[in-house]
Each structure stands twice: as structure tokens, then as C-alpha cells.
Design brief:
682 residues; binds magnesium ion; 7-stranded parallel beta sheet; alpha/beta; binds adenosine-5'-diphosphate; 24 strands
Length: 682
């Protein structure tokens, strides 16, 4: 027996060259092969007679070879071999292109199993390049439900199928980790049956049951991970904050808080006085003023002698928070520091020393705050901004940097409600359901290229009124990905041809940290009127004087992403506009973009996005803070997720901390699932 940890080169037929191709699919070990699930299936179980074959409907049939013609070269690189076969109902002409090894190996008078579809009409039918197998060999490519695997250049589906089969033969299915009582209660197949059936299903029912098992297993592990994190946090206690006087903070604010902001701050400050770690989600749509609530929480924590970490998903956002929070809080005696990956080593060292010393401060940063070299001497509160951009594991990892830290998670709700209940189910929730006063709303339009001249005129009009404008492009350089507008080229055109008299600046993710910060800061001071950017400005960026957001090739973005982009305007008192430019004629695409013109409700947009685009896109962008699932499809398997969550919560409650091998195996799998955010879970 081989071990699942063995290299795939252990398998017959896989040498170093072929192994490289498997590596490209993320497959290194025999175990990886077993977890490499088919992308889809092709049902080849139907056996028919030749006379029953229908045009363009592939099927299997058994036939005898009557004739094999000589292979001809019809032109350079194109060989053709004609074969005639027959069964008791009819004869059929087969044509093999560039396939002489298969065709010429067919022996006259012998029977074979073929799989293919016929083309033609009553004057004559033909089948091109059918799949051939001997009826004496075990069914591999015919007479069964064929798995269709994710592939890569140089690896055929057949090669992957054979490798997976071999892997299952030499090391068997992964051991059962689900407790027997759970298998029974939820009607779940045992592991060995399920792993075998997912790769070599005998029937559609088999397949459905196997899929259910694997999805359930994945969700169970995921939910067990969340339950473990919760359980660990619930046990903890903290020193209650005694100094909860926020008067000085309130009087330093440049505006009056909204009712919703005051309520949220009240709830947070009360949590901080309770002597247990706070676990709170602050939910509010783009522009609702979450930063101020974070500032209040940070102020309270620092005034009680603690350190605060505020983590943002992009450097641009971290820098912006550092600028605005420093301006607000330093006069109140709160030391604010910034830590991002692109800062110089000396600067980083200096900041890290302050953090390690334990002196009260507010550290604002990117996931650099999570890195091994970063330690806090006295971390009391962790805040994550735009949590949907982080993994659940990253949130936990940051909290683990301190003893019994308070946690405030902020999110603009771009995930559907059901899912957020599961992800954040353990958190208390504060909602900002009110926008700051004086906002005039954002009008959204969908236009195509024929509006370009009017659009340019509109930009000019906004700029002449003293406002600023964002133009977002899907790519940085020309020729990147598909043919979407490239920020670099477009910025150059605008500068030279369209607005030579205006300041047009350019911002994209490939620029150096320092450069990005300067460009963003200059735009924020009003030194340039037009900012051409990629989606680096998608989240959080706050320049209230910007009133116009133009998204080029808008069809290239997801709805939630467009909603976030639109949220960059409408942050001041002037009327704002969002213009989606798309030449797409696809009715679905247009319906999707029109939906955005009609509503500004982030919840509704997230749900619409999921419904319209399906999980591949919505969940493909890792905008949800979830680990990558292999079998589960979050838009379709929500029912199973709920069941698995119940099962996992009950199981963790009863057995989570047991020292048994069974409990250990589950914890091990939890660790592996959450590991993709370089997080350690104990
Ligand atoms: P988000 O919830 O999207 O993070 P921000 O915290 O960036 O929103 O706030 C959006 C804008 O509204 C900022 O320019 C901020 O200064 C401003 N703002 C926040 N609260 C208020 C308020 N109570 N009154 C007026 N403006 C506010
Ligand atoms: Mg924000």
C-alpha cells in the first residue's frame, strides 16, 4: 500500500515530465489526486443499436468491424482512415482523423464498443473519431458515467482518470472522519463508498449520494472550525474598560454623528466594559460612516491603556485610514502608526518596535499586521475593515496576536444574508442603516460607446463645478486578459487628447507603495481632477469631493464590485453620478447592469449578483472570506450547509476538546482547510 502523502511519481505511468503537468493542477501527492474531483460528468451508460443512433446525440454501441481502409494523407498534417462497422440493425461509416493508431489497430471481424454521435442525413450517416474500447476490457471511456476532470495542457482526461483510479487502488479512500451517529442522522454515505463513487459512479443516484457526502464533509469541517473558534473565544475574559467617557472624542468630530453611528458606538463601548471579549459585526452599506465608529472604538481602547490593530485589505485604504485617523486622534493623544508591506525595512522595524513595546497605540495596516515579525505587546482590540476581503482564518489569526482581544468586524454586506448568518452567526451585530445627512444619492446610468462625446462633456462639466472624477478600467496594460480598456493607455489618451488642460492621474496595483500613496493623497487634496485607476480603489477609498464614477467595460465586473466602486462617490453633499460604459449586447449582461441602475441597496445587489452569476463568479473572487471548497457549491448547497452547521456545532459542543483519535482527526482537517490564509489553528 502507498501512502496518500507519497509523490504521484510513485504511480505507474507518471514520470518526472508528466508529474510536472499534474503539479500545474496543484497535484503533488497521491492524496491530492483523490481530492481532485471531476468538474462534471458525461453519462455514457446508454447502449443502443446502430439503427437507433440519433444525429448529434452521442451514445455507446457494440459493432463488428467490416472494413478498415488504408490511411490517406489528404493534406499536410491531416490523415484520414475510413472504417466500416455493422451490428444486427445497420452498417455505419466511421472516419478517423489523425488517429491511425486507433483505427489501424481495429481487426476485421472483431467486435468493439464505440462511443460517439452521428452526423449526416438520410443519404448517409457518418461518425467522426469515435471512442473505441474492447468489450473484454473493463469499461473506462465507454459504458459508464465518465468523470470530466479539470485539465491542463498536455494532460488528457483519460490520463487524469487513470491516475485517479490508480491512486484509489494503491492507497484506498481517505479514512472516515465523520462520526457514525452523524452518518446515520443525516443519511450520509461512508467515506470509502463516496470517494470511489465520485470518481467512478455507477449511476446518477450513486453520484448524487457521493456528492452529498463530500459536500457535507466539507461543510462539517468548515463549521467545526468556526465552532472551535467561537468556543475558544467564549471561554475568555478580559479586564473591563473603566474609562468609557467619550465626551472628548465626540467634541473633536467635524460633524454630528448619525443616530445609527451613536447607537453602534454605544453598543461597542458597553461591550468593552463587560469583562468579556467583544465579538461584534458592524454592518453598514458603503458610505454609511463605519470608519468613525472604528475610530471611537480605537479611542476607547487606547484610553484604557491598550493597543489597537486596524486591518484593511489594501495599502491604499490602510494609508487613507492612517491619514484621516491620525488627523482626528493624534490631537486627542492617541499615537497612530502605519504598517504596510511596501514600507522600507527601517520604517517597518521602527513601527514593530513600538508595537512590541506594548505602549498604547493604534496600528493601522494591511495583512502585514499578521506577519510573523509583527508582535503586539498589549493588543486589546482588533478591527477588520471590509472583512469580506479577508479569510475567516485571517480574522482569527489577527485576534490571536493578543490575549483575549476584543474584535470588531466591519463589512459593507456584499455577501448574501444566509451566508453571512453562518459566517458571522456568533457575532453580535450593530447596523448602520442610516446615511450621514445631506447626501443626495447617486444616479446610475448605463451607456455605450456612442455616448463618448457626451460623457467627456459631462466629465468637464463636473470638473468645472469644482468636483473630481474617477475612471475605472478593467486592466492595467493593453493586451492583458481580454480586450478590456487599459488604464495606462486610457490615461495617456485623456491627458493628451481629451483633457490636455486638466490634471489626469493614474493609479494601479503594480505601482510601488510609496508612489500609490502619493497619487492617492494628491487626488484627495484635489490636485488632480481625474483619477484613472484599476480596481485598487474598489474598497474604502474616501474622497468626498469626487462626484463622478465612470466604469469602463462595466460588463467585466461583478455587481457587488460595481456597487463598491459606485460607493466611492456620493460621499459629500453634492449630487453624484455613476456611469457604466458597456458595449455588450448580451441581454443577460445588460439586465445585470440595469439592475444596478435601479437600486443602491447593497444587500439586494449581493443577492442578485449571486442569483445571476452563479457561484463560479460570485464566490470565485474570494470576496467572501471563506476557504476554498472543492466539492461544495455555495449557491446550491445552502441546505446542506445549514445541516452540517447544526451537526458540527453539536459535535464540537460534546466532543470538540476530547483527546481521542477521532476528535484529533477532525481538528487536523479543520487546520488544513483554514490553512490557506497562513493561519495556525490549535
Ligand atoms: P464607509 O461606511 O463606507 O466606510 P466612511 O466611514 O468612509 O464610510 O464614511 C463616508 C464619508 O462620510 C466620509 O467622508 C466620512 O468623513 C463622512 N461621514 C461619516 N460620518 C458622518 C457624519 N455623521 N456626518 C457627515 N459625514 C460623515
Ligand atoms: Mg470604509
Amino acid at each position: 500500500m502507498a501512502s496518500p502523502k507519497d509523490n504521484i511519481q510513485f504511480l505507474k505511468g507518471i514520470g518526472p515530465a508528466k508529474a510536472k503537468r499534474f503539479n500545474a493542477l496543484g497535484i503533488e501527492t497521491i492524496g491530492d489526486l483523490i481530492y481532485h474531483y471531476p468538474r462534471s460528468y458525461e453519462d455514457r451508460t446508454t447502449m443502443v443499436f446502430i439503427a437507433e443512433l440519433e444525429v448529434d446525440c452521442p451514445a455507446c454501441f457494440k459493432a463488428m468491424v467490416m472494413r478498415v481502409d488504408k490511411t490517406h494523407l489528404i493534406r499536410k498534417g491531416l490523415e484520414i482512415t475510413k472504417v466500416v462497422v455493422a451490428d444486427s440493425t445497420a452498417r455505419l461509416n466511421l472516419t478517423f482523423f489523425n488517429n491511425r493508431y486507433v483505427a489501424e489497430a481495429l481487426r476485421r471481424g472483431e467486435e468493439y464498443i464505440f462511443y460517439g454521435a452521428i452526423t449526416g442525413d438520410y443519404l448517409g450517416y457518418n461518425m467522426t473519431n469515435p471512442v473505441v474500447e474492447s468489450p473484454y476490457d473493463p469499461p473506462l471511456m465507454t459504458r459508464r458515467i465518465l468523470p470530466v476532470y479539470p485539465l491542463t495542457a498536455g494532460l488528457s482526461n483519460k490520463a487524469v482518470t487513470q491516475a485517479v483510479r490508480q491512486a484509489l487502488e494503491v492507497c484506498g479512500a481517505p479514512p472516515e472522519i465523520l462520526p457514525p451517529e452523524i452518518l446515520q442522522t443525516y443519511d450520509i454515505l461512508p467515506a470509502d463508498v463516496a470517494y470511489k463513487a465520485i470518481h467512478t459512479p455507477m449511476s446518477q443516484e450513486d453520484l448524487a449520494a457521493a456528492r452529498k457526502r463530500l459536500v457535507f464533509e466539507e461543510f462539517f469541517i468548515f463549521s467545526a472550525g468556526l465552532s472551535l473558534m467561537r468556543a475558544r473565544r467564549k471561554e475568555k475574559t478580559t479586564v473591563p474598560y473603566l474609562n468609557r467617557d467619550m465626551g472628548e472624542f465626540f467634541s473633536a468630530l467635524p460633524f454630528t454623528l448619525t443616530g445609527a453611528q451613536s447607537r453602534a458606538i454605544g453598543e461597542i463601548v458597553a461591550d468593552l466594559g463587560k469583562g468579556r471579549p467583544m465579538n461584534r459585526l458592524l454592518q453598514g452599506d458603503v458610505g454609511s460612516g463605519k470608519t468613525m465608529v472604528a475610530a471611537a472604538a480605537a479611542y476607547c481602547s487606547v484610553k484604557n491603556g491598550h493597543q489597537v490593530a486596524l486591518m484593511a485589505p489594501t495599502e491604499i485604504l490602510a494609508e487613507q485610514h492612517a491619514r484621516s485617523l491620525t488627523a482626528l486622534l493624534e490631537p486627542l493623544g492617541v499615537n497612530c502608526v502605519l504598517l504596510t508591506g511596501s514600507m522600507s525595512a527601517t520604517k517597518k522595524r521602527n513601527v514593530r518596535e513600538q508595537m512590541a513595546s506594548g505602549e498604547p497605540l493604534l496600528a493601522i495596516g494591511t495583512h502585514a499586521l499578521l506577519s510573523k515579525g509583527t508582535a503586539f505587546g498589549n493588543l486589546g482590540l482588533v478591527i477588520t475593515d471590509e472583512q469580506h476581503r479577508f479569510g475567516v482564518g485571517q480574522r482569527a489569526a489577527l485576534a490571536e496576536k493578543g490575549e483575549n482581544t476584543h474584535l470588531l468586524v466591519m463589512s459593507a454586506t456584499p455577501i448574501p444574508r444566509t451566508l453571512s448568518l453562518i459566517l458571522f452567526g456568533d457575532l453580535d451585530v450593530s447596523v448602520l442603516d442610516e446615511l450621514p445627512p445631506g447626501r443626495q444619492g447617486i444616479e446610475t446610468f448605463l451607456v455605450n460607446e456612442s455616448y463618448r462625446t457626451r460623457l467627456n462633456g459631462f466629465v468637464r462639466k463636473e470638473v468645472e463645478a469644482g468636483h473630481q472624477c474617477y475612471i475605472v478600467c478593467p486592466a492595467v496594460e493593453e493586451g492583458e486578459g481580454e480586450s478590456g480598456k487599459a488604464a495606462e493607455v486610457w490615461a495617456e489618451t485623456l491627458r493628451r487628447v481629451v483633457f490636455p488642460d486638466l490634471q489626469v492621474s493614474l493609479l494601479h496595483g503594480r505601482m510601488k507603495g510609496q508612489q500609490k500613496e502619493e497619487i492617492m493623497a494628491a487626488f484627495s487634496r484635489g490636485e488632480s481632477q481625474i483619477l484613472v485607476a484599476t480596481t485598487v480603489i474598489e474598497v474604502g477609498v474616501d474622497v468626498p469631493n469626487a462626484t463622478l464614477m465612470i466604469v469602463e467595460d462595466a460588463d467585466r465586473f461583478g455587481l457587488s464590485q460595481l456597487h463598491q466602486l459606485r460607493g466611492r462617490v456620493g460621499r459629500g453633499s453634492a449630487k453624484s453620478y455613476c456611469i457604466l460604459v458597456s458595449n455588450s449586447l448580451n441581454p443577460d449582461t445588460r439586465a445585470r447592469l440595469k439592475a444596478l441602475c435601479k437600486t443602491t441597496d447593497g444587500f439586494r445587489i449581493a443577492e442578485e449578483d449571486l442569483r445571476l452569476r452563479g457561484p463560479g463568479d460570485f464566490f470565485g473572487q474570494r470576496q467572501h472570506g471563506l476557504p476554498t471548497f472543492k466539492a461544495a457549491d455555495l449557491s446550491m448547497d445552502m441546505g446542506l450547509l445549514t445541516e452540517a452547521q447544526t451537526a458540527a456545532a453539536q459535535w464540537i459542543e460534546a466532543h470538540g476538546h476530547e483527546d481521542s483519535p477521532a476528535a484529533g482527526a477532525i481538528r487536523e482537517r479543520v487546520r488544513a482547510l483554514f490553512d490557506d490564509g497562513n493561519v495556525t489553528m490549535n
